[in-house]
Description:
The structure holds two protein chains of two kinds.
Chain A: H1 13-20, H2 34-54, E1 85-89, H3 97-102, E2 106-111, H4 114-126, E3 132-135, H5 138-143, E4 148-154, H6 163-173, E5 174-185, H7 189-202, H8 219-228, E6 231-242, E7 247-251, E8 257-264
Chain B: E1 3-4, E2 11-13, E3 16-19, H1 23-34, E4 39-42, H2 47-50, E5 59-63, H3 64-72, H4 76-79, E6 84-86, E7 88-93, E8 99-103, E9 113-117, H5 118-130, E10 135-138, E11 143-149, E12 152-157, E13 162-165, E14 168-170, H6 177-181, E15 186-202, E16 209-215, E17 218-225, E18 229-237, H7 241-246, H8 249-260, E19 267-283, E20 287-288, E21 291-293, E22 299-300, H9 308-328, H10 336-365, H11 369-384, H12 386-397
Parallel strand pairs in B: 1-10, 2-13, 3-4, 3-14, 4-10, 7-16, 14-21
Antiparallel strand pairs in B: 5-9, 6-9, 7-8, 11-12, 12-13, 15-18, 15-19, 16-17, 17-18, 19-22, 20-21
Amino acid sequence: MAQNPAGSSTLAPDEVERFAALADTWWTLDGEFGQLHKLNPVRIAFIRDHVLAHFGRTADRSAGSSQGAAGGGRTGEARPFAGLSMVDLGCGGGLLTEPMARLGADVTGVDAEAKAIGVAAAHAAAQGLEIDYRCALPEALAGEGRSFDVVLAMEIIEHVADIDAFVAACAQLLAPGGAMVLSTLNRTLKALALAKIGAEYVLRWVPPGTHDWRKFVRPDELSRALRRNGLRVRAFRGITYNPLADRWALSEDLSINYLAFVTRSAIGGRNRAT
Amino acid sequence: MTIASPSATGRYAADVAIVGGGLVGGTLACALSGLGVATTVIETGDPAASLDAGFDGRASAISLTSRRLLETAGLWAGMADEATPMRYIRVTEGASPLYLDYDHRDVGDEPFGYMVENRHYRCALYERIERDPNIAFLTRSSAAHVERNAAGVEIRLAGGAGVHAPLVVAAEGRNSGLREDAGIRVSGWSYRQVGIVCTVEHERHHGFVAHERFLPGGPFAILPLKGCRSSIVWTERADRAPAIMALDDEGFTVELARRFGDFLGAVRVVGPRWAYPLSLQFAESATAERLALVGDALHAMHPIAGQGLNMGLRDVAALSDVLSEARALGLDLGAGDVLARYQRWRRFDNTLMLALTDGLNRLFAVDATPVRLARNVGLAAVDALPPLKRFFMRHAMGLVGELPRSMRGA
């Protein structure tokens, strides 16, 4: 198994240690990552719809649409991401990486925590999925000169040590004309109450200490950090939890969890932060 | 050719493995194929042998929502010519002059449903399956061993071949072996009643009327078939049924005619008759690790409202909705959170339908005068109250409850 990488700007050792202790439960539905499993359909649908639209591809049937299936109701393309290269930063046990591979993307999963990478690689092998898992930091991958059509940074930016360094590494990893999807927690009092105190201490969805509220990122801060690196936010959407249905859904409310769809222009150089 | 016996050493990989290739299992394979999901069906019988009319002279009621699913699955066109619409439903009770009349025009211009003989359904099913490259239909084969774990489902067939899939569906009927292996318990009870099923010919045309008569022995249904024929579902007390079944054709026809009446002229029994002890049975869970139950494996019910197959088809519609959504998101089709959606969806729907159907039968099986009076007044009251009547009619058509996408109108 790979060693945890060290000595770099985005690594937060205490965060990595916290996730290492939970490595065995990545694929347990009623474990610490249970809510992440529930969140998965919503964030995948967001990624799929925006990425397909950005690259001019179609999937004529979106999840949760209420269209009548009369007349065949065939799915458009079973592997709509075929031919797209993708990197999933902070992939953990591969909860998001595996669906991306099933949708046809050529995916690299990256995480700073070695145990998670071990869990993810074993799980993908059992599923017969080909995924390139790497225990590394984004800046190391960027240093190798790697670039991808799509960069995913989901529920990760609130765990890194230096947001600007992280965004700069993301920008380097993104090919010209590429797209990036981020999700994180907003630094509002509501998020402190619900996502931090509610989820950690009251509902006990995740272990206490999973999140540090001070590291939560406001949408305007994210926009600015992205812009400094030549990236543009095209869409912000909120994700809200419906306690009665026990389901997550997209919304216009960005005050707690939110998603951002980000693009890099196809032409011209980038304003690389150093 | 996709319908064949498995080769001894074959290894079949599919998105979904279905054990049981009858009406429900076969329809599921077709519905999933239409959504781009490849299936391998494991069936003990041989479809070619089952197409003979002598094998099964029974017929099934297809509700309006079930017809929509069959259209979506590409099956309706193959049986539409043989389907008889039920345009009117007349409910009567014993000798009572009061009755309840349902006219399909009260709820729209579609019939309440259709009667389709099972052999025509099977014909449409196997013709459709035979030319579908997404379906591998393995005949005369059975699952000798099924291993379900976090990585997937591995099925070893009796002949030595293997099937691998992320999900296995139990569609083998009320005595489901997969359900038993998974340790899913069943609850239910037996009625001291037997369902006698046969086909009759009568002199006059039925005029597309379905009759449901609540007689002291149990409900007696006359369901219109093609031409001057009807399908009979005759519920009788368990202690009387053996004597009726033992009668010769002449004696049986006399007993039947006493209940049928002469409103369509002389009545003659054609083809074989069957008798089934009636019971209600439902599995306590619709899912287990990488396993989903559909049809009679999940719920076997009293045939009073003709909803047995329709409920199985609702399982098919709900499961194909859940699986097509999961597939569009790249999720593992057998994952626990995917199956949990199917479980939630089916639990409420099945419970409601079982309770409604069972309650209706119990109400009409009691032969005490105050209950009869209440019932008669009740029937007349329902007839006098259009909204209530419309609810019952929509129930008969299968339009009550939350409908899977493939069953909703466009």
